[in-house]
Design a protein that fits this description.
3 domains, 4-stranded antiparallel sheet, about 300 residues, two-stranded antiparallel ribbon, Alpha-Beta Plaits, 6 strands, Herpes Virus-1, alpha+beta
Length: about 300
């Protein structure tokens, strides 16, 4: 704001048009701060400039001294004053820029507050997740402790019972797969023999009509075994204990018929089977799994000891 050159007070914006401005120094004065003169005098010079840059004497409602000429009133300040309009424009522009800066600051502050709110929410979720994870870990630790305690107390026998039960189930499944198989044991084995023709000859000897199409497979299984006291040369293979002949039939009825005939003709030998070795009795039985075979042998041994068999 502009100060009066006389009273040094600020001049209101609405009163600037009523004031006078020096044409030399541009100082503005209230009308009542000047002595004498007429309003609107052109090319008005303030008392300071007129008296050699001496400060003007302000008027405090005192009478004009005798013998002094009245001062001319200064030229009124026109409303289009170049000095004041530039200052006003600068002030308005500063206010606009300040308002924009404050608005941007508020927007950025709001964005920061929103980010802080989201961050707090994420931290809260993380705390909840950590708490849930900690709870689950505590539960797992408790369960592990219980299991370890059971094992230490001997509750592992239950697991052993489950494993044994599973083994029995697997054994039963394997035995079902051998439902169409028979095993001919103690039948002399010769080099270059045809296993299919051999089982067909055995079936004929037992009185069973067997076609080649009824046979899925026929082969000797296991390692070649030798009788005690026999040498290890190749020529002694025929004298060793023969490997069992395993046959799989296409139908279970064929297998049942052959095993039933073998029971009827118990004690049949390998004579008349076109073999060069000495006749020996052979046995036709259902093929068993390893576990069932061991169980069968143990049962026979117990029966022999008890004179049951």
């Amino acid at each position: 704001m502009t100060k009066c050159g006389g009273c040094k007070k600020y001049i209101a914006r609405a009163d600037i048009a009523k004031c006078a401005k020096c044409t030399k120094c541009g100082t503005v004065y209230h009308p009542f701060c000047l002595k004498g003169g007429e309003e609107g005098t052109p090319n008005w010079v303030c008392p300071g400039c007129a008296s050699g840059n001496q400060p003007p004497a302000p008027i405090v409602d005192a009478p004009v001294a005798e013998g002094m000429d009245s001062l001319e009133l200064p030229e009124p300040v026109v409303s289009d004053g170049r000095h004041n309009s530039t200052a006003n424009d600068t002030t308005e522009e500063f206010k606009v820029e300040l308002g924009l800066e404050i608005r941007l600051f508020r927007e950025e502050l709001s964005a920061v507050r929103e980010e802080i709110r989201l961050f707090r929410a994420e931290v809260k979720d993380l705390k909840s997740s950590f708490a849930a994870t900690d709870e689950r870990l505590s539960t797992l630790d408790s369960r592990v402790d219980v299991l370890e305690k059971r094992v230490m107390e001997g509750s592992g026998s239950r697991l052993e019972a489950v494993i044994a039960e599973l083994r029995l189930e697997l054994n039963e499944k394997d035995q079902e797969l051998l439902g169409n198989d028979v095993e001919v044991s103690n039948l002399p084995e010769e080099a270059g023999e045809n296993a299919t023709h051999m089982i067909m000859a055995v079936a004929t000897k037992l009185g069973v009509t067997l076609r080649e199409s009824d046979i899925v497979s026929a082969e000797r299984v296991g390692a070649r075994r030798r009788a005690p006291g026999e040498g290890g040369d190749a020529g002694a293979g025929a004298a060793g204990r023969p490997r069992p002949l395993v046959v799989r039939f296409t139908r279970r009825a064929v297998k049942d018929e052959l095993t039933a005939a073998a029971r009827v003709r118990r004690g049949a030998t390998s004579a008349d089977l076109s073999q060069s070795s000495a006749p020996r009795p052979f046995y036709v039985n259902e093929r068993l799994t390893k576990y069932n075979r061991q169980l069968y042998y143990q049962t026979r041994e117990v029966g022999r000891r008890l004179s049951v068999l």
